[in-house]
Amino acid sequence: MHRFHPNFYSLDGDIRLGEQLSKEVETDLVPSPSQRAQPGGHTVGRRLLDASPEPAFKLFPYSYHVVDSPEVNAFALPGGPVYLNMGIVEVCETEDELASVMGTR
Q1: pTM of the model
Q2: How would DSSP label each residue in 12-49?
Q3: Strand partners, 18
């Protein structure tokens, strides 16, 4: 844990909270029909996780979801769920550009 960004939840608490919130969020989101976009988010996410020098990041069960929305946006929930709007996927011309969006916190 970083001393300037304390985490008041346990690892299991973060994961449970993320699972609960993702169920709520997914009632309002429509998965992208583009089969091409789904693997890209997962591939880039795995690369970022593998390259991270922070061992605590590797403890979370990350999942990546591309949402059918034209907005240029992305967000993450506690415990690992990451959502990318199709708008951000379409704006990014390379996986490196998508990684820069996903890697920003």
Answers
A1: 0.84
A2: HHHHHHHHHHHHHHHTT--B-S-TTHHHHHHHHHHHHH
A3: none
